[in-house]
Amino acid sequence: MNNKNIFLNPILVIIALAFCLRSLGQSNTVEFRYPLVKLHDIEQIDSIYNLALSVSKSDKNYKKALLFRNENGWDLNKVEQLKLDIPEILKQEEFSQIMSYLEIFKPFRSDPSKWELYLEICEELLSEFEKGTIEYTEILGVKSIIVLFANKNEMALKVLPELLDELPKNTDSYFSILFHYGTIQSIGDEDAAITTFEYGYKKSVNSTRHLDFAMSLINLYSLHKKYDNIIEEKAYIATQKTGILLYFLGEAYLRKENYDLALRYFNRYMSHFKETEDAPYLVIKSGIIDHPVRPEHLFVLAEFYSEVDSEKSCKCYGYIQKMISQPRDDQFYQNKLATMEEGVGKDMSIKKYEEYKSYLDDILKKANKNLKLCK
Fold it and tell me: What is the predicted pLDDT for the residue at 28?
């Protein structure tokens, strides 16, 4: 249903939904979907839910009712019915793929205030289904998604490895969860994250996540001054059409004092720059995704080019000034921080963020000073 349905009269909606459940003459298109019903209060949803319970397996609309109950059973805390319905849904051919239950129940679309209830339901359901079964795996997947969106990093470090053990290896679902696991590890244990990303990078060659692993791994290599490791990936980095990783290759050669190769790859990197009118002002395009060019990388470029190409050096300092001098909008960071549990992970995030802001202030001062020398 599209957004215009929010203007429908609630009474007409209830009548229409009831008719869909009772009528044998309707098409198999699901005509009652969660985004529509969610707009009404819980009592109205519950009354329609009870209608869905009365639809028998022999009814043509049984599957519709089954899906409807699962879309809303979590909000209504219908745990006992979920225990019965989830195995039925997972028998359906269209939900036979791993993590497909999230196509029905999408916890991240709900108000975050409901996530604790969802986690409680997950625990009850996990105690009902046996480990190794598809039902157990799907509910563990739901729990993992909630934990990730709720920024419960301590819990995620326990839940995600269990889910990884349940998922078939070499699937996109496996590599997506593995990538999230490595990302959370990187908050407090970058060495462990490197190990995870190395494994993911090696095994995910045919996965849509391969570039994500490469970017995160090579970024950590750079932070830990593992320049030889970056150079070992030269063939992969140099053949990436987007050029996103070329900075790291140029930086690695710079730190190894091979200035000719540093210049080559920095030049190639800058050739991919695309300016934007609004923040972030400078990006590298990868398909439909715009990757912001980072000020700290521009500062390295500016310092390097000051010896070989003053025009490019001044250009990089100018980009830095334009990016950092604007008022900072850290609302996204503050919202994320507000949802994080108290503990080492949150403290580490705050520390890193404050250090990064201080670093940006420093390079802005240097950029402003050097720009005065530019023509």
Answer: 31
Question: What is the 3-state secondary structure of the chain?
Answer: CCHHHHHCCHHHHHHHHHHHHHCCCCCCCCCCCHHHHCCCCHHHHHHHHHHHHCCCCCCCCHHHHHHHHHHHHCCCCCHHHHHHHHHHHHHCHHHCCCCHHHHCCCHHHCCHHHHHHHHHHHHHHHHHCCCCCHHHHHHHHHHHHHHHHCCCHHHHHHHHHHHHHHCCCCCHHHHHHHHHHHHHHHHHCHHHHHHHHHHHHHHCCCCCCHHHHHHHHHHHHHHCCCHHHHHHCHHHHHHCCCCCCHHHHHHHHHHCCCHHHHHHHHHHHHCCCEECCCCCCEEEEECCEEEECCHHHHHHHHHHHCCCCHHHHHHHHHHHHHHHCCCCCCHHHHHHHHHCCCCHHHHHHHHHHHHHHHHHHHHHHHHHHHHCCCC
Q: Say whether pLDDT at 158 is over 90.
A: yes
Q: What is the mean pLDDT of the chain?
A: 86
What residue type is assigned to position 169 of the chain? K
**pLDDT band of 346, cuts 50, 70, 90:** confident
pLDDT of residue 357: 87
pLDDT tens digits for range 8-56: 233 223 323 333 333 322 233 334 333 344 444 667 788 888 888 988 8
How many CB atoms neighbour CB 222 within 10 A?
18
In terms of DSSP bridges, do strands 282-286 and 289-292 run parallel, antiparallel, or are they unpaired? antiparallel
End-to-end CA, the chain? 58
pTM: 0.82
